[in-house]
Amino acid sequence: MKKLQSVYSKGAFLFFFVLAISCNDKEVKTAIPIQRNSETVLYKIAIYGDSRTGHDIHRKIVKNIENENPEIVVHTGDMVNDGSVQAEWDNFNEITKTLRNGRDVYTVIGNHEKNSPLFYSNFGKLQSDKWFSVEKGNAVMIFLDTSFSAIDPSSDQFIWLSNILSQSEGKMKIVFSHYPIFSTGYHGTERKLSADLPALFEKYKVSMYISGHEHNYERIEKNKVVYLIAGGGGAPLRGQFRSLPESKIFLKSYHYVILNIQESSIITDVYDDNGRLIDSF
Predict the structure, then answer these.
(1) Burial class (CB in 10 A: 0-12, 13-18, 19+), 12
(2) In this structure, what are the phi and psi dihedrals at residue 78, rounded to the nearest 5 degrees?
(3) Beta partners for 23?
(4) Residues 6 or more apart from 217 whose CB is under 8 A from it?
(5) C-beta of residue 250 within 8 angstroms of C-beta of residue 185
């Protein structure tokens, strides 16, 4: 770890660590800001994804999330390795049993769920819809299906999404999906998603688009929208394969994300599977 640095901005000190992280034999330099405003945290949303076959890591992450005591938990897809096998769901349910007790838990469908009826039967009535939205105080959470349903401008899902965003004026908008729009990881940018969705998000001032699929953590910021990849829930990690100027941080690390929802802002903390802070903004 390199030298601790600080800067002074708008009447408050902003401290950050400058890290040098090796990833696929490539050093990725990044800053982790540590800053808090005076607003009260109204509630927490915990996010992780791509747990699949990494059961020991999955258990660690679940325990760490439980210690954060969020009101809401979101899984970004690929919960299991083969969604058509009930035994895999039984294992997932056993690992997450206490996490799901007394909390609202939402998921988006990943490619490894295989569009199996078992995905829907294991997550209740709300998950019978392939895309849906949930309002919570000053925020609206929007859950998309980018794995098995079309989302181009002529599709039912895109039209629905446009309507939800246009009707949510004044609310913070957080969109969840399995496939990332932009990525420097193994799969890279999804061209079908990047063609139309970013402009829609910019038009309606979406705060964050959070996905999985890539087995890493990445934060990309483009035209005032934050694109987070939270795919380090247990599946084998992968490194960085390309570059984007908008990529602020890439980490080959197991992790989970905590959104601290405030009245007018979101403070985001990202922790590795050992509970160490790896990003904050």
Answers:
(1) exposed
(2) 55, 55
(3) 26
(4) 228, 229, 230, 231, 232, 249, 250, 251, 253, 255, 270, 278, 279
(5) yes
Strands 225-230 and 12-23: unpaired
Domain spans of the chain?
Answer: 37-280
| Residue 30: strand pairing partners | 19
Distance CA(230)–CA(233), nearest Å, equals 8
What does the pLDDT look like over 222-254, one tens digit per residue? 999 999 999 999 999 999 999 999 999 999 999
- Per DSSP, the three-state class of 153 is coil
Whole-angstrom Cα distance, residue 178 to residue 108?
A: 6
Residue 126, pLDDT score: 57
Non-local (6+) Cβ contacts of 93 within 8 A are 100, 122
pLDDT digits (tens, 9 = 90+) for 107-139: 999 999 999 999 988 876 555 578 999 999 999
Phi/psi of residue 165, nearest 5 degrees: -65, -40
Query: Within a 10 A sphere around the Cβ of 98, how many other Cβ atoms?
Result: 12
Can you name the residues that pair with 208 across neighbouring β-strands?
174, 226
Q: Scan for tokens 């990202």, then name that residue.
A: 270
| 174 vs 8, higher pLDDT | 174
33: amino acid identity, one letter? P
Q: Answer yes or no: are the C-beta atoms of 158 and 166 closer than 8 Å.
A: no
Q: CA–CA separation, 279 vs 219, rounded Å? A: 9
CATH class (in words) of the domain with range 37-280: alpha beta
Q: pTM for the full model? A: 0.89
CA pair distance 179, 48, nearest whole angstrom: 14
CA nearest to 256, candidates 44, 112, 101: 44
Instruction: Find how far residue 14's CA is from the centre of its chain.
Output: 25
3-state secondary structure of 66: helix
